[in-house]
Structure formats: C-alpha cells, structure tokens
Amino acid sequence: MTDNKGEVLLRVENLCQYFGPTKAVDDVSFNIHKGEVFGLVGESGCGKTTTGRSIIKIYNITSGNIYFKGQRICAGVRSYREAIKEARKEMKTCKDENRLEELKKIIADNNAEIKKARFDHKYSDREYAKRLACETRADYEEKIKNASSQEEKNKLAKAMKTDLRVAKKTKLITKIQMIFQDPIASLDPRMTVREIISEGLAIRGIKDKEYIDNKVFEMLELVGLVREHAGRYPHEFSGGQRQRIGIARAIIMEPELLVADEPISALDVSIQAQVINLLNELREQLGLTILFIAHDLSVVKYFSDRIGVMYYGNMVELAETEELFAHPMHPYTRSLLSAIPLPDPRSEKKRTRIIYNPLAAHDYSTDKPTMREILPGHFVRCNDAEEAKYKEEFGI
Amino acid sequence: MDNILEVKNLKVSFRTTAGTLKAVRDISLDLKRGKTLAIVGESGSGKSVTAKAILGILAGNTIIEGGEILYDGKDLLKISEEDFHNIRGDKISMIFQDPLSSLDPIVKIGRQITEAMLLKSSTNRRVAKKEFNARLAALKKNMYAAVGKEHTGEVDEQLKTFKRFCIESNHLENSYNLAHSNATDLHGLSDNFLFLAEKNQHIDVRKNLSDFRKRLGKIDDRFLTKGYKDRMNAISEELSRAAAGYNKKENKTEASVEAVKKLEELTKELIESKRPDFFSIGYYKLFDQSANLDLPTEELNNKAQAFIEERFLKKFGDSEKEAVKYSFERALKEKKDVIEKLKTAREFFSTDFTKPEAKKTAKALYAEIDESIDELEFIKDSRAYTFESALDNAINRYFYYLKRNPKEEARFARQSAKRERLIARGRTVTWKVVPKVVYPKEELSGNIIQIIDRMSEHYENQIASSGEIDFDKRTNDLTNHFKKTASGIVYRVTKGMAKEKAIKLMDEVGIHEPRLRYNQYPFEFSGGMRQRIVIAIALAANPDILICDEPTTALDVTIQSQILELINKLKAERGLSIIFITHDLGVVANMADDIAVMYAGKIVEYGSADEIFYDPRHPYTWALLSSMPDLDTKEKLDAIPGTPPNMIYPPEGDAFAARNKYAMKIDFEEHPPFFRVTDTHYAATWLLHPDAPKVEIPKAITDRIRRMTERLEGGEIK
To answer: 20 to 30 A from A205, CA-CA: which of A233, A377, B575, B665?
Structure first.
C-alpha cells in the first residue's frame, strides 16, 4: 500500500501477532503520516489494542515489520521460519540439481533475514542513539569551533557533555508514548504527580532537579492543571484530571507519536469533551501524530483524519474519514456505521442495524481476499469479484 | 396514568468523616408501566444512588432522610429485608455498571447465570401459591357477601373447581411450552446447519445429526405433536441412516442435508401450529368423562370452550362480577367514612400532641384505612397500602428530631465558637464546620399533615371517578391474574431447563460458543463479555422492572446496539418497565420514552424524549447535548468547564450556576422551582421565569436540531 501524502512517520507492514493459536492481529499494514490523527476502530477483541501495544513493543510481534522514522523497531521472524520449513520439506523430495541450489539459497537468505530482524529488534534503540550522539557531537563541535572566548567554549563543552549523555540514553521507542484507557489503574497511587510525570526523565538519566521541576510545571500547565498539583497524589484528583496527568506523563518525553488507547471511554460526558479539546490543542501546539484507538465512532469521526476499520485481526477498510463515512464499502463497515446511536429520538426509532455475517457476506472459498485500493486512498479488503462489485457501485 | 413505580420526594445522604454528603436532594419520578425512563447526568449526580435506593442496596453509611418509593402496594424504603428478598431480582432486577466487581470470581459462569433461576424456582412457586390463595380467599369472602348466606355451598363448590382446573390447565400448558421451545431451538439449529452446508463450511455432521435426533425426541407433548408422530419417527430414522452413511473422507453431505431439510420443515410447521386453549381444555379434561383430547386442535378448542362456557364460566363469571361489584361498593362506602376520619386526624396533628396520643390516633386510622381497601382490585392501591408505614415514619421522625434538634444546634454553636476562637488567636484553621442539620418543628408536623392530605385527596379522586368503572374489564383482569399466578404455582425449573435457558440467553447477548463458555470462570472473559454475562443474569429472572445502570458504557457500538435491541425486544415482549441510567445521549434517544436530567442530586429537567432532544430548556441539558460530537460535528466542542460541586457543602441556589455561562445573580442565591413548559415537560431554571432575559440556545444544538428535522423531512433515513 502506498500513500502519497506527507512524510511517513510510522509504517506497519504485514503485522501479525499470535498468542498461541489465537491470531489476535493477522497481516495488518498501514502508514501513519506526520501530524495526522489515525483512528483505529472495531469491536472489542478485534485486535486494535494489540496493534497499539505491538507498536510500543509491549509484545514481541510474531511476524511483519514496524518502521518508525525510517528505523525498523520491530520485526517478527515467523514468516522467514515458515519459508525455511517449506524449503526443507521440498528439499527432501526434490531431485533437480538447480532447484536444490535455489532452495539452499532461499534457506540461507531467510536465515540472514532472521539474523537481521533479531538485530534490529534488539538494537534499534542503540543504533538510533548512536546516530543521535554523532549528530549532537557534530553539532557542538561546530559551535565550539565558532565560539569566541575560552569561557564560552568551556560552557559549551559542559552542555555538550550533558546533551551527549542524554542522547546516548535516548531510546527511539520513547518517541512513541501511550495514553491508557483507565486513568485510575494507570497511575501509581504511591507516587506524587511530580514523580509520576518526571519518571521518564529520570530513567533517561536526567538528574537536574530544577530542570525536572520546570519541565513538570510546564507540562502541568500545558494540560490545564496548576503547579500546586505537583505535590499531590493521584487519589486527590477527579477522573478527568487523572487522565490529564496521564497525558502530561506521555508528552514530557517529547514524543512524536502518541498511541491513545481509548483515552476517553472511562470518563464522564462533560469531561470527555474537555479531554478531546485538550488533545486537539496539544496536537496543534506540539505537532503530535496520534494513533487514536476507540470504539465511539462519533468521537473517532470528529477527531481523526484517517480511519482504519478492523475485524477479527484483519484490517478490512482504510480511508480518509469523510470518504469512509460517505462511501463505506466493506459490509462490516456498513454494519458498524449503522449501529451508531444518535441523539435524535425520531430517527433512532427508525434506524435499522445492518447485521454482518462474514459467512453470508463473502465467498472466499476459492479466491482469497487482499487489501485493494478501490478509490484513491480508499482501501478495502476484498477479492476480485468483490472489487468489481464495489467499483461498479461507485461507477468506476 | 398507570405508574408501576413512583419515587416521591426522595432524599438520601451519606455519612462521611468530613460531614454529610447530600447525594439525592428531593427528587420525584414516575415510571410508567411498559415504558422506559432514562436518568441522565454525570457521575456523582445521584442517578446510581436513586437506582440503588429502589433496590434497597445502599451502603451502610446511608441516611434516608425522607421520601417514598411506591411499588405494588409497598413502600420500598420501609419494608423489611425479608420482604425485599421476594422483590429483588424477581420483580426488580438490575444490570450493574462494573462487570469486574459484579461477578463472583470463583464460581463458573454457568452456575452464576442459573443460580438465581434454580434458587428462586421454589420461592416463586411458594409466593405465587400464597398470592393465589389470598386472592381466592378475598374472592370467597366477597362472593359470600354478594350472593347471600343461602348460596355459600354453591360458591364453595365453584371456587374449588376453579382452583383445581386452573392448576390442571397450567400443568398441560407447561408441558406444551417446554416442547414448543424445544422445537423452536431445533428449528434454529437445523436452519443454521443448512446455511453452513450451503456455504461449504466445515461441519461435524455426525455429531450434529445425533444431537438433532436427541432434540427431536425431546419434542414430546400430546397436544403439540398431535398427528405428527409418524413423520417425526420417519425423520428420526432418516437422520440416523444419514449419520451412518456419512463418510468423513468423502464429505458427501447430500443425504444429511436432505434429512435436515425435512426436519426444518417439520419444526417450522410445529412452531406455527395453532395453540390449544389450555384454560378450557383443563376443565374439559377434568369434568367431561367422555373427553377426547386427541381431536384436532381447532375442533378441540371449540368443543372445550363451548363446554366450559356452558357448564361453568357463565355462572362463575356472573357471581365473580357480583363479588367484584360488591367489594368495590363496600370499599367506596368505607372510603367516604375514612375521609371524615382523616379530617379529624388532621386537626389533631395540627396542634401540639404527645407520643402516646399520636400513636393511638394513628392506629385507629390504620384500621379504618385497612377496611376501606378494595381487595379485589387487580392493581394494588399503593397509597392506601403504604399509608401506615408512611405515617408511622413521619411521626417517629417528628419525635426523634424534636429531641435531636437542640443537640445539633449545640454542636454547631460549639464548633463554630472553637473555630472563631482559633482564628482570633491567629492560627490557620484548615477544617470547616460541618453544617448543621436541623428540621424545624413546623416542617416535621407539616410532613405528617401532608401525608394525611394526600391520602384524603387520593380517596376523593377515587370517589369522584367511581362512576366510570368498567366491571366487566375488572372481572376479566382478575381472572387473568388468577391464570397467571396459577402458572407461577406449577412452573418448576429443573437443572437441565435452567442450563438450556442460560445457554440461550448467552447466545442472545452475543457470546459465541455458549456451550463451551458455560463452564468457564469470569477471568477467562474480556470486560465486554463479562458485561454481557451480567446482562444475561439480570434478564434470567424475568423481572417486572429492569434497572440498567450504564449497561453498555463498556461495550463497542455493534454489541451496544445489539444489547439495546435485546432490551427493547424484551420490553415489548414481556411488558418490562425500564429505568435506564446513562450519560450517553445517543443511547437515550434510542431507548427512552421519558427522560430525567439530574445534576447534583436534583432533577433539573424532566420530559418526554422528543421534548428533551428537540426543545431542551435547561442550560445543563444544553451543555450535555453540545459537549458530545455527533457525526456532523466539525467545530470545537463546548466542554463544560470545571467539575461538579462537592455535595458535603451543597451550593446555595442552583448547583449548576458556577459552571453555567448563562447564570444570573439569582441563580447563586435561590434554587429555581420547576417551571412548566408543557404538561409533561418541566425544567428547573430561572431562565424560564417571565422576568428573565431572553437567552439563545447554543448554536451547536440549534444546528443539530435543524439538521435532524431536515433529514427527517428529506426522508433520508430509511
């Protein structure tokens, strides 16, 4: 799948996440562009949370690749292993010399891929830190060269030392931060708000107390709390305020991608609007990119630029928000959209839900479905017959 | 209007270390029979507390300061825990908000769903028997009086017969219902089998076929399978032949599909066959020696109906009607007397009185009221039945607070003095004085008088409308009530039935492979799945009133609308009345007939769903409506600033004033009364006062209403 809109910040390729026999996520691919909000919807258990968690490396993915800022951060090996297995099986019966050579090459290639994947998976942070440290050093050396006095040079050298330490300890993965669903369970009740928010900085190796305090105050004010709150404990706050603390904890690491896993489902109505407005403001101020996982379609529509619809571990439809709501193609998307309750009693009384039964809706016995682009930027999981049908419906 | 549940002036507070938290402050609600009342508001507004008060499951530190909850001739705030056992779960059931804490972690799901069914099976029968006998005794008494002394023997005979064949017909009906539901299940399964076979999906043919055979054997009722026996046997044999001939390797399913097709047709015919009239057939079977029950259903129905009409119903119906009439007239006469008595009592309570005197007067009054109750009225007169407990309570409160008030005053004075002393000494005082709770004597005796006034007003209304009573309808209702309770007496739930029902319920609420999951523990389910289990448990008991406390908040849209559809379906089928608590206005629009918007323990707006959505009047309702995006929202959301007030120190005036951009000076000083918009629509905001300035409804809402009406007129909605 290719998109031609802006820089790609996160690329997910053929992501599979299996838990034993359960295929939680099966072959999901999508791109997230810099500065956009990408909504992920689907019913509970369809793998949207698992996708989000795989991205921040809470799980080791089964197969597929995840690229973040061009660097591969996650890689699974199952697909390579299976290729090797196939090849070995064939080798047992194969008599043709040329074919045997070919197979041997396949095995060797795949083994190399596995090695590479393991390396990237384990050392992506180190590689990134190395790169960052090099850049920082070059930057400072340039500055020191141009400095006029010895005093200034010393000062710069000292600053370089601190920054280098930070750069060496920087992990690429900290540029992806997560906001959790439950604002109560996700905050440690025995830590003060200052400790909670600054924990990431401490782990990164910053010891300057003044710097930390200033940073915490700045974040608190950014999310609409006040400095005085820093010394308090989570239980002294209401649900909405706690969610703000969770957001402050995420953005203090200056992330580029925010994975928001149902950040408002556990909140009160009036507070939900406050949090959505806050996320919108932060997005504008900090230029954040957000992966927004939710099941409330009205909110997702309001908040996201593009939406991916998931069903049982598969991505079934992906399009820009307006496009998706105007021309839903996949029967599951249609059923999902028909289920949205609206604050309008008269039309609610008439609304009929479209029931989606995958067995009745598709015939995949011979022709397996894949993601295909029906309209520009509008992808649907379908097979040849269905593709023709969709195209006909929209007069292409 | 016919209200199944009435909440009147309910006040609930919680005792906490910081002071009394006023959770519910004087609310009144009516739940109409077969309708849905939605209570909307944010957390802490007291909606869950109201629901819990109805179920009598408030926490230990609760103080119920006043009010009544009337249901089925009882005041739920005053009945004993013993009595509550017969109501909770059976009559009023609740779907809880938190699926984590409302399931027992160490008991399997299946047992949790069937537990109540099995446990209640015998209790229900006992309760139904008690009710049946009590009503029958009342009927007997009134029949005696109505027909005169010389015919008592005849009456005895009639009632004995009535009871006997009521029970007998229900035995027959029960067996029929069981077979019928088995047939329905089998039809669904065979349908599913054919669908899968058509789609070339993998099916375990042998297992399915043997299961079908077993189920076919369970469809066993002389009325349902009349004339089908041979066909059933033939199909059973064909199924067994198909199973034997099935070869897994070749996977040829033609023979089995053919057999199942026949099975599907048969079950369909069975389900749609005419229902026998068991009420008549029971009598026919018992009292006609030459009764032939194997006639075709239609003929049997006609014959039985003619037989019972001639031999029993004509006579019995007449005397029953006489009795109903007599009972009503007797009660009416008593009521006229009671009104006089109430007047004298009112005078007595208006002056000063001592405790023994008051008790004596009240006791005399209770006896009079008891006399004046029409025992044969099908719907119990709640006000009359609860008069005793209400008045007793008010009198006790009167004397309790007479004693308590001076103590409370003293405490408040002492603490305030201490605070001032400390401040005078220049110390910083961080604590506040807990506000005093004092009830003036006039208010307390006013309460008593109010109860008496309401009672006499109620009776006066009844006397005024006494000319319009339709005795035929009353008699009919009474007979139907007897039939219903009789079915309660014979309905016995076995373990197997409970399991089947539980699996069906699990399937209905959208749990895949219910048979497998029946034996799992709660921790093996996800949050959404657990919520569905909780819903299944609540629905299992077949309640009169269902209280749903944010039942779908944790679920995603498809399941949410599936469950709402299920609740709506049950509402239509069983005449369920529902109290629906939520903060999602989209859900409310789908479900509610009436809506109460609550804020800080008070109802701020009350009206029908159309009125609240198309003509909202209270600024809080506006804020709620405009703070959530719908599918057309593009502009910035109007979030409600701040958080709800601390209800230990409830604010003066309108509690919403501090967060309200339309607040006026008076909002901070005095609480607005309810202003009437229409007969069903009320709002408590000073903006509706004639002197108030004109305020425009926020644009987001007017836009939305405009869009909605346009869409409706444009016929865009299919």
So the answer is: A233
β partners of residue A309: A41, A317
Q: Out of A272, A336, A352, name the one closest to residue B558 (CB).
A: A336
In a domain, B331, yes or no: yes
**pTM, to two decimals:** 0.77
DSSP code per residue over A280-294: HHHHHHH--EEEEE-
User: Per-residue pLDDT averaged across B199-224, rounded?
Assistant: 84
Residue A12, strand partner residues = A30, A66
Compute the 3-state secondary structure of chain B and give helix, strand, coil in percent, each to the nearest 5: 60, 10, 30
d(CA B112, CA B105) in angstroms, rounded, equals: 10
pLDDT in tens, A114-145: 999 888 888 888 888 888 889 888 988 888 88
How far is residue B476's CA from residue B463's CA, in Å, rounded to a whole number? 22
Task: Please check whether residue A367 touches B, CB under 8 A.
Answer: no
Read off the CATH number of the domain in which B449 is found.
1.20.120
Q: How many CA atoms lie within 13 A of B574 on its CB side?
A: 18
Q: Name the residue with tokens 């009206």.
A: B607
Contact B589 A348 (CB under 8 A): yes
Tell me which residue range forms the domain holding B374. 314-410+438-473
CA distance A298 to chain B (A): 5
Which residue, among B78, B84, B80, has the nearest Cα to B390 in the 3D structure? Answer: B78
Q: What's the structural domain count of chain B?
A: 1
**What residues of chain B, 560 to 619, have a C-beta less than 8 Å from chain A?**
560-562, 564-565, 583-590, 592, 609-610, 613
**ipTM passes above 0.90:** no
Distances (CA, A) of A26 to A13, A378, B130: 11, 20, 60
Phi, psi dihedrals of residue B232, rounded to the nearest 5°: -65, -45
Residues B534/B103, Cβ–Cβ less than 8 Å: yes
DSSP assignment, residue A10? E
A334 touching B, CB under 8 A?
Answer: no
pLDDT tens digits, B661-704? 888 888 888 889 899 999 999 999 998 888 888 888 888 888 88
Task: Please judge whether B589 and A342 are an interchain contact, meaning their C-beta atoms are less than 8 angstroms apart.
Answer: yes
Strand-strand pairing, A8-19 and A63-68: antiparallel
Backbone φ and ψ for B61, nearest 5 degrees, come out as -90, 20
Cβ neighbours of A268 in B, within 8 Å: 42-43, 583
Q: Do A345 and B527 touch (CB under 8 A)?
A: no
Q: How far apart are CA B388 and CA B72, in angstroms?
A: 15
Token pair, residue A363, equals: 């015939």
> Scanning every residue of chain B, which has its alpha carbon at the shortest distance from the alpha carbon of A44?
B556
A336: nearest CA partner in chain B: B558
- Residues of chain A with C-beta less than 8 angstroms from the C-beta of B598: none
Collapsing DSSP states into helix, strand and coil, what is residue A365? coil
Q: Which candidate, B131, B117, B17, B44, places its Cα nearest to that of B500?
A: B117
CB distance A390 to A371 below 8 Å: no
B623 closest CB neighbour out of A239, A270, A296: A270
**DSSP string of B602-619, one letter each residue:** EEEEEEEHHHHHHS--SH
